[in-house]
Amino acid sequence: MGGFLLVHRMGTDDTGALYAAEGHAGPCAVRVLPSRVTADAARRAAFHREVELLRGLRHPGLIHVVSSGEERGRCWYAMVPLSAPDLRTRLDWVNALPWPEVERIAFQLLDALGAAHDAGLVHGNLSPESVLVGANGAKLWRFGLGVIPPGAHRYQAPEQRQWGRAVVQSDLHVLGRLLHEALTGGEPGSQPLPRGVPRRLRRFLERLLSERIEDRPDSTTSARRLLTQRFPMGLLAVGGAMLVALGMYALQGAA
């Protein structure tokens, strides 16, 4: 397919069948999309448009697409070999991750999503299975590429389930869901965040998980700003000093 030899099938999901393959430059992975994509002219056009955007991106947090096309009535794309377990596999092993690791993953995924969003590409298919977690950090793959139907899985944002189309805030909402699951081992609302999770991370997740799209950050830059906020200890110290001074003044007046 497209000059690639499909060696064996590695799995199938909503985005199609994944094959280990051999190309001119060596091993790779080839995703062959479901036939319903090719049968729908609008979805087929969306796929070709979005996969070209992804192919043009070079970012350490994004899977590298090397080729794409349409053959024998099926759309496909080829990418570099996958060499790290996904977040779902990690959570199956340990149930939940410590908050410093989750915060580090959050920053890495915000950087990767920011690069995609700046190029005009929304992921649209975020889930723990879409995040590879290796020694060099987190990496995104399994992009929706305009072909994921509404209600395909439980990680879709409310407006995505309703409209059938993801926007920047949709990616951020689902990012909040998978980070919450990484912290607790369960869905939002089913498990409280562990003790010790800092206020900035709690506030960050609260905003991302807002049901209303207008209550979420409107960009990865805004989301990162939330995650880097620190409690204003300096203001607390000044305020405390003022209260002490006022108290002493009141005592002197009473005397």
TrEMBL record:
<dbReference type="GO" id="GO:0005524">
    <property type="term" value="F:ATP binding"/>
</dbReference>
<keyword id="KW-0547">Nucleotide-binding</keyword>
<dbReference type="GO" id="GO:0004674">
    <property type="term" value="F:protein serine/threonine kinase activity"/>
</dbReference>
<feature type="domain" description="Protein kinase">
    <location>
        <begin position="4"/>
        <end position="255"/>
    </location>
</feature>
<keyword id="KW-0418">Kinase</keyword>
<dbReference type="InterPro" id="IPR000719">
    <property type="entry name" value="Prot_kinase_dom"/>
</dbReference>
<dbReference type="Pfam" id="PF00069">
    <property type="entry name" value="Pkinase"/>
</dbReference>
<feature type="transmembrane region" description="Helical">
    <location>
        <begin position="231"/>
        <end position="251"/>
    </location>
</feature>
<dbReference type="InterPro" id="IPR011009">
    <property type="entry name" value="Kinase-like_dom_sf"/>
</dbReference>
<keyword id="KW-0067">ATP-binding</keyword>
<keyword id="KW-0472">Membrane</keyword>
<keyword id="KW-1133">Transmembrane helix</keyword>
<keyword id="KW-0812">Transmembrane</keyword>
<protein>
    <submittedName>
        <fullName>Serine-threonine protein kinase</fullName>
    </submittedName>
</protein>
<keyword id="KW-0808">Transferase</keyword>
